[in-house]
From TrEMBL:
GO molecular function, one term: metal ion binding
Listed pathway(s): Cofactor biosynthesis; coenzyme A biosynthesis; CoA from (R)-pantothenate: step 3/5; Cofactor biosynthesis; coenzyme A biosynthesis; CoA from (R)-pantothenate: step 2/5
Organism: Rhodanobacter lindaniclasticus
Family of the protein in this entry: In the N-terminal section; belongs to the HFCD (homo-oligomeric flavin containing Cys decarboxylase) superfamily. In the C-terminal section; belongs to the PPC synthetase family.
General function of this protein: Catalyzes two sequential steps in the biosynthesis of coenzyme A. In the first step cysteine is conjugated to 4'-phosphopantothenate to form 4-phosphopantothenoylcysteine. In the second step the latter compound is decarboxylated to form 4'-phosphopantotheine. Catalyzes two steps in the biosynthesis of coenzyme A. In the first step cysteine is conjugated to 4'-phosphopantothenate to form 4-phosphopantothenoylcysteine, in the latter compound is decarboxylated to form 4'-phosphopantotheine.
Keyword NAD on entry: no
Listed EC numbers: 4.1.1.36, 6.3.2.5
Annotated positions binding CTP: D100, K110, P127, D128, I129, L130, F145, K159, K163
One cellular-component annotation, GO: phosphopantothenoylcysteine decarboxylase complex
Origin: domain of life: Bacteria
Residue ranges of the region described as Phosphopantothenate--cysteine ligase: 11-222
Cofactor binding mode and count: Binds 1 FMN per subunit.
Protein name (Swiss-Prot/TrEMBL): Coenzyme A biosynthesis bifunctional protein CoaBC
Gene this chain is encoded by: coaBC
BP term (GO), one: coenzyme A biosynthetic process
Amino acid sequence: FGHGALAGLRVVVSAGPTYEDIDPVRFIGNRSSGRMGFAVAAAAAQAGASVSLVAGPVSLATPAGVARRIDVRSAAQMQVAVREACQAADIYIGASAVGDYRPANVSALKLKKSAGAPLSLQLEENPDILAGLAAQSGHPFLVGFAAETHDVASYARGKLRSKGLDMIAANQVGDGLGFEVAENALTLYWADGELALPRATKDELARQLIAQVAERYRAARG
Ligand code: PMT
């Protein structure tokens, strides 16, 4: 625990994609690199928090000052790790891109082609990590992200309400922003306010986000 806006607070950050296995060699994933979430974890540590970072499959080094890193693969594994870490946390920031669906059956053997016939995969919904936390009593202050291609404000405010969040950071993906790239732009929404953080590096945006999270956390929880 250092000095700074989050001194004395325990923060859990999730980052990166999830991989949902189809068979021993194939999976369903997404384009999250983990860069945004790792930048958020670094900024929270710089602000004095004790940070636990739950990371999906990414190729990034653990940022300096992060106390604990838990590597996971699937959404189900991410949920277990986040829940465990959140039992003793003041703030959870979900920057991970959690797969909404997973194959209903994981094949133990490599699937083979069958003479030009189409292949169907049956998918079932993954649990929602943030909404699950929000339903538990004594849960941490909850910050979500929203990645949208259109109607960003209305989808973001919808997720703020439906998932029971304290704050959401929305990014419009595309145009060199969002997934994989070094830059992003965020708009923060909470129940009675919003703040646009214009295009900048993910490191810079993470610092600005953490300053706002610290302020909203103190306002809500003293
Ligand atoms: O990793 P990068 O390449 O740097 O890219 C960064 C990012 C674009 C992935 C990141 O900034 C971002 O927006 N992350 C959230 C992407 C996303 O999947 O959003 P969503 O609208 O599907 O989910 C909304 C929120 O619910 C997120 O906080 C997500 O972590 C959470 N969620 C979603 C599904 C689920 N089953 N459980 C969840 O907790």
